[in-house]
């Protein structure tokens, strides 16, 4: 076991798959010699050569379209979109094309592509570098959207994503890249896609979260415990498709749920999760399902960022509301 | 400051081998084609013209769905396809069904594509192509990727993609040719300049005098070809293919052509944006008329042979329509099954629901 940050675990996952499968290619803007602007691909070009780990011209749509072409010739591309706010430049290649290719071809042309990208707020970036746009991707049938919350999951989920024969949007929360270390096995292992995990068991309320909000939810749960409220925390890990089985099992036990996301209230996936809970478990509910989310403005300018982003206090507030309903 | 634009534009003269009268005007460029090859090219053009006429009729009868007429563009479409090898990969635009057929897509499947049945999009094993792209230009960046894939694998194969004059305005066009150049992709980009993007004339697409010259900015080869001259289109594509597999980079080919019919059969009325004079002027350049003259002169073609071919083609079309009619209808559950390698939980649940509905 080694102590790794999430970004080291991500690099390690790519290294593992570059070694395992000669069809794996890693590329993007500044990904080669520079090792990526966050150093996610540090050392990979040196280790695997320019043919397999390389820089591309600066054009996201080109990167997306090229990935499809490489997949059509049997490669397993792992392109990087430098910041997920740049996804608008590559929306057609992702949503209009790679998500639909297997379907369009009557099941004959799989797209084993993993699009990696940093996202999420709280790190004082310029505009369009910090949005939570997972909802846009989750609304596109044909894609999987995976968001790890810790180094161990990041490595196992990324390996599973790269091995998947369907396209995966793999979103890496920038605030988690280097915020803490975890025990991460040096050998290869996978974490199953489409499966949530219970991070903390509880009996009074279910907190459903993903990405950085898993940590805010855990912190909120600790505070709630002091007030005598026992919160269960679920980390979705894959946000499309959502593992409703795990959520419903928990809600049927706790009878209350709060869905937590960093994205704006009208974006993200919290609304879909809340809707599914009431469809499937309304008779188990003691209170409405509430959502913790950012307000429906464009992502906050940095000076208002800390107030704009949801945090453990906003979660505690909503939990109190469902407890006192 | 030295001005360069005029010098660049002067480089892009239209490449022609066979003129409108069916005479060879560029003997040096004459490709090495056997008499049988020449006849085969003619057969394919005639077949495709008849297919176009029948497809329009079938569409009007409600027996075909989406259809983009091809008449006028046979030399551009088939001359370029004839220069390909089986290993080459076609990424077509929405009008480029003929190339798919000659690359191996059975005709009844082309009809299924038109009717909106997914089986029309399933290329048979060994047919290196994808179904026609609907988003203008999206196929161009993908073609760069296929061409790069072939290069990485050291394969003797190229990707070829088709778009129109409107497609050459898309961002993906520039990104695609630029990526292909930067990576030395084994790719050919064909722009069939039929002068209109639905209704907007090419003059309104760009200040560039030719589309071929756009290659210069990407640092790749570019050529403008008489797109009504099947020999010129063939020769240009053949040469581009050779350069690509020899590691000399991708090529942009602009073919000057014209579509006689409407943009699609979904209500477009060309009289709103084209004059009869213009239609007549282009019909004088017809690719089949001039090639027929050329072959007749060589004693390789006769009216009798053509009529026989037309009858045979009509029979084949009839049989293909029947085969398309006999293909089982697709179900919503079929569509669910082709979304992912394995059904995810949400679709599993929805599949049960539809499976029950569809069994009734």
What would your notes on this structure say?
The complex is a heterodimer of chains A (325) and B (360). Chain A is built from twelve helices and 14 strands. By secondary structure, chain A is α/β, with parallel strands linked by helices. Chain A folds into two domains: 2-184, Thiamin diphosphate (ThDP)-binding fold, Pyr/PP domains (Rossmann fold, 3-Layer(aba) Sandwich); 197-324, Rossmann fold (3-Layer(aba) Sandwich), CATH 3.40.50.920. In chain A, strands 9-11-10-13-14 form a five-stranded mixed β-sheet, sandwiched between helices. In chain A, strands 5-7-6-12 form a four-stranded mixed β-sheet. In chain A, helix 7 (151-163) links the parallel strand 6 and strand 7 (168-173). Chain A starts with a strand and ends with a helix. Chain B is of the alpha/beta class and 360 residues long. Chain B folds into two domains: 2-329, Rossmann fold (3-Layer(aba) Sandwich); 330-360, no CATH class. Chain B is 48% helix and 9% strand. Chain B contains 14 helices and eight strands. In chain B, the strands form two sheets. A six-stranded parallel β-sheet of chain B has the order 1-7-8-4-3-2, with helices on both faces. In chain B, strand 5 (196-197) and strand 6 form a beta hairpin. In chain B, helix 2 crosses helix 12 (303-326) and helix 5 (107-115) crosses helix 12. The radius of gyration of chain B is 21 Å and the shape is globular. The termini of chain B are far apart. Classes of the chains: A alpha/beta (325), B alpha/beta (360). The interface between A and B is large, with 44 and 42 residues. Chain B: It catalyses: N(6)-[(R)-lipoyl]-L-lysyl-[protein] + pyruvate + H(+) = N(6)-[(R)-S(8)-acetyldihydrolipoyl]-L-lysyl-[protein] + CO2. Chain B: Its EC number is 1.2.4.1. Chain B: Keywords: Coiled coil, Oxidoreductase, Pyruvate, Thiamine pyrophosphate. Chain B: Residues 42-332 form the Dehydrogenase E1 component domain. Chain B: Heterodimer of an alpha and a beta chain. Chain A: It comes from Halobacillus salinus.
């Amino acid at each position: 076991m080694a102590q790794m940050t999430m970004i080291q675990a991500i690099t390690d996952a790519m290294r593992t798959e570059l070694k395992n499968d000669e069809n794996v290619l890693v590329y993007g803007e500044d990904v080669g010699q520079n090792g990526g602007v966050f150093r996610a691909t540090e050392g990979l070009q040196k280790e695997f050569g320019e043919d397999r780990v390389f820089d591309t011209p600066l054009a996201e749509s080109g990167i997306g379209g090229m990935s499809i072409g490489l997949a059509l010739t049997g490669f397993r591309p792992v392109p990087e979109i430098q910041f997920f706010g740049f996804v608008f430049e590559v929306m057609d290649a992702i949503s209009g094309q790679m998500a639909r290719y297997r379907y369009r071809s009557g099941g004959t042309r799989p797209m084993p592509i993993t699009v990696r990208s940093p996202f999420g707020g709280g790190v004082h970036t310029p505009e369009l570098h910090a949005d939570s746009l997972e909802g846009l991707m989750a609304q596109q049938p044909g894609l999987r959207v995976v968001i790890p919350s810790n180094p161990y999951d990041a490595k196992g989920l990324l390996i599973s994503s790269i091995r998947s024969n369907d396209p995966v949007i793999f979103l890496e929360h920038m605030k988690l890249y280097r915020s803490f270390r975890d025990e991460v096995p040096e050998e290869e292992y996978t974490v199953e896609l489409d499966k949530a995990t219970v991070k903390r068991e509880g009996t009074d309320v279910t907190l459903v979260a993903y990405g950085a909000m898993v940590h805010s939810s855990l912190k909120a749960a600790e505070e709630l415990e002091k007030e005598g409220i026992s919160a269960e925390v679920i980390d979705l890990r894959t946000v499309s498709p959502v593992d409703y089985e795990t959520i419903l099992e928990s809600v049927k036990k706790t009878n209350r749920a709060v869905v937590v996301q960093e994205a704006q209230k009208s974006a993200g996936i919290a609304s879909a999760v809340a809707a599914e809970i009431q469809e499937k478990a309304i008779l188990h509910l003691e209170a409405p399902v509430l959502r913790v989310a950012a307000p429906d403005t464009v992502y906050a300018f940095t000076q208002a960022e800390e107030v704009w982003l949801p945090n453990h206090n906003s979660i505690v507030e909503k939990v109190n509301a469902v407890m006192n309903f | 400051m030295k001005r360069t634009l005029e010098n660049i534009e002067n480089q892009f003269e239209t490449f022609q081998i066979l003129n409108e009268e069916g005479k060879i005007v560029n003997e040096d460029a004459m490709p090495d084609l056997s008499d049988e090859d020449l006849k085969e090219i003619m057969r394919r053009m005639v077949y495709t013209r008849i297919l176009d006429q029948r497809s329009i009729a079938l569409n009007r009868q409600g027996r075909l769905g989406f259809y983009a007429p091809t008449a006028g563009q046979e030399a551009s479409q088939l001359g370029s396809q004839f220069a390909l090898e089986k290993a080459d990969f076609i990424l077509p635009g929405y009008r480029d069904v003929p190339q798919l057929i000659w690359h191996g897509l059975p005709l009844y499947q082309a009809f299924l594509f038109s009717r909106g049945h997914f089986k029309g999009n399933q290329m048979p094993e060994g047919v290196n192509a994808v179904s026609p792209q609907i988003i203008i230009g999206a196929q161009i960046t993908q073609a760069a990727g296929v061409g790069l894939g072939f290069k990485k694998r050291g394969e003797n194969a190229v990707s070829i993609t088709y778009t129109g004059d409107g497609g050459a305005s898309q961002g993906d066009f520039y990104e695609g040719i630029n990526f292909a150049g930067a990576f030395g992709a084994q790719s050919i980009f064909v722009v069939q300049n039929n002068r209109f993007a639905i209704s907007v004339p090419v003059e309104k697409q760009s200040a560039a005098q030719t589309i071929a010259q756009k290659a210069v900015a990407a640092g790749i080869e570019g050529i403008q070809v008489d797109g009504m001259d099947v020999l010129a289109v063939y020769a240009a594509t053949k040469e581009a293919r050779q350069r690509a597999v020899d590691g000399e980079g991708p090529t942009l080919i602009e073919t000057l052509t014209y579509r006689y019919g409407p943009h699609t059969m979904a209500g477009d009325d060309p009289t709103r944006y084209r004059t009869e004079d213009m239609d007549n002027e282009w019909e004088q350049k017809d690719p089949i008329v001039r090639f027929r003259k050329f072959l007749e002169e060589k004693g390789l073609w006769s009216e009798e042979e053509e009529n026989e071919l037309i009858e045979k083609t009509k029979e084949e079309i009839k049989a293909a329509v029947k085969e398309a009619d006999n293909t089982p209808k697709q179900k919503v559950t079929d569509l669910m099954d082709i979304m992912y390698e394995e059904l995810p939980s949400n679709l599993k649940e929805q599949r049960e629901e539809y499976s029950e509905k569809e069994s009734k």
